[in-house]
Amino acid sequence: MPGQRQSQPLLALRGVSKRFSAVQALVDIELEIRAGEVVALVGDNAAGKSTLVKVISGVGPPDKGVIEWQGAPVQIRRPQDARLLGIATVYQDLAMCENLDVVANLFLGREIHRFGVLDEVEMERRTRELLHTLSIRIPDVRMPLAGLSGGQRQVVAIIRSFLGSPRLLLLDEPTASLGIQQTNQLLDLIEELRDQGLGVLLISHNMSDIKAVADRVAVLRLGRNNGLFDVNTTSQEQIISSITGAADHAVAHRPHPEEVWP
Amino acid sequence: MTNPLPTKARVAEYAGGVRRRVREGGLGPAPVLLALAVTWVVFQSLNDKFLSPRNLSVLSVDIVGTGMVAVGIVFVLLIGEIDLSVGSLAGLAGAVFAALHVNVGMTEWLAVVVAVVCGTAIGALHGFLFAKFGVPAFVVTLAGLLTWSGLMIYLLGPDSSISFSEDGLVASLTSRYYSAPGFTYGLAALCTAAYLLVSLRDRARRAGAGMPCRARSGIWVRTGLLAAVAFTTVAVLGHFEGLPLALLIFLGFIVASDLLLRRTPYGRQVLALGGGVEAARRAGVDVTRVRVSVFMIAGTLAAVGGLFVASRFTSASQVSGSGMLLINAVAAAVIGGTSLFGGRGSTWSALLGVLIIQSIASGMALLGVETAVQFMITGGVLITAVIFDSLARRTAASRVRT
Predict the structure, then answer these.
(1) Within a 13 Å sphere around the CA of A116, how many CA atoms are in the beta-carbon half?
(2) ipTM reported for the complex surpasses 0.90
(3) What pLDDT, on a 0 to 100 scale, did the predictor assign at position A4?
(4) Which residues in chain A have their CB less than 8 angstroms from residue B20's CB?
(5) N or C: where does chain A have the smaller number of CB atoms within 10 Å of the terminal CB?
(6) What's the domain count of chain B?
(7) Residue B216 belongs to some domain of the structure
(8) To the nearest whole angstrom, how far is the Cα of B194 from the nearest Cα of chain A?
């Protein structure tokens, strides 16, 4: 849908700041995500990436600044607010209940019930259907999450974000514990979702993943915007120097620890 | 869509799933049932009065007070917290009832309602202090233990005991028995039939949706076991005075609370809190509301349990609110298989645990063993249960493959 690219952004952050007691985690962040676009969010450790995700998903609301949804300012104070807008999140720490089974985790907070009684059959049916259409194998959907491997849990967390047909997907390091084949499958899926008109914010440390699916790259450094690049016209070196601070846009030069880009 | 499998394959898939879950998640109630069986066999071999209808009938009424309190404790343990105030809340409820009914002259049923509402309100207060101000539940309820014990002693007055009539509403809670065979056997048949119908309907729905389902023979075996337990209970208790009203109320509370926990969105939220508070919050669960409500349930059931204890003595006294009630209730929940670490357990564990504890107490009393030894043995059973719990948790954690 080429026409939609030009229209107003699905989500826009204007001057968003967030402080944790002594630490200024985010300062005057500006970010726009359009429908049908994948924006990669990159930055060194402690750049504020996960904090930004929590601001948008309602887990840690901002202290200052405006969040706009389709051009209108909105308040996202709780996770429920984000969900009602159509924002779904895969957190870096997954945030799932180890004691509940796969079906219960997928539907946690939006259980299907009839007359106040959980409809386990319907929830399990939809789970199996979803796994089937995404051609994902989970040995037993009634197994408590504690019995699944790290990769399988990550897959469950990702599928959970697809339930309820979101309009904006926030993925915080979604490929961290996935194998090569699963990673490629996820990247294909992200492209498919973008083509369906979803907005995607992808946090990743992996430059080749970003090159493969992202349209634009937003760089965070020490809690500030440090550049916005078009993936197709920017070299990897340019992005990396922006991440490490070799090309500072926002903050003054300061001694930088010798860190190796993974 | 899922490809339609032949029924046999679906049953096989279901059985495979059950086997896998048993391997990963422990043995369910099997060790507890085994422990109960061993307790009964040992005491019966030492004294053949132990499994007599008379002793079992007394046992089935004695478990109810502590058992009710233990059901409330299960809720609190499921969210990974503890409530130390339930013993004194139970005592306070008895004292409030007796003071209002005997001293003030309030109508009996109204005094009962006020006593139970007192429990609910105090539970809500504990939950509020814990959930809103972040005071550890351990400390809030420890302060509650002191405060409400004090209020109970104050209400009981200088005699530290208030007796009430032996044929009133509260007294009849533990003194009424149903012996008409038509009623008692009919009730057993009704429960068995209800279980069978629900199981078959569930199976039909799962099969209709093309999903793994339990084998029909499995359902019949389970129904048969339930029928055996139900009819044996009715027959044995029928040899003495009949089916006690207290036991029926207790079983009703257990079934209702079990359905609440396993079959409703609210119960799912309670379990989710035990599995990870932050995960539950991010999934949109209102953590404060669930926490407050859980402490309200614990307070309410403590008050109900307190009324059953008072009913047994037909008086409210300091005995009924003693620390032993708290210790036995927590021990019952844990011995029955509810995890101290949150997220795992069921209200049936309150029944099994309190049966074991009360059986030990009753057997020891029959043998004339002093209370001191009884405490030590119950303590040993409790520590064994906690070790099982910790081991189950460790195996679950070590199974995580990355």
Answers:
(1) 5
(2) no
(3) 45
(4) 139-140, 143, 147
(5) C
(6) 1
(7) no
(8) 17
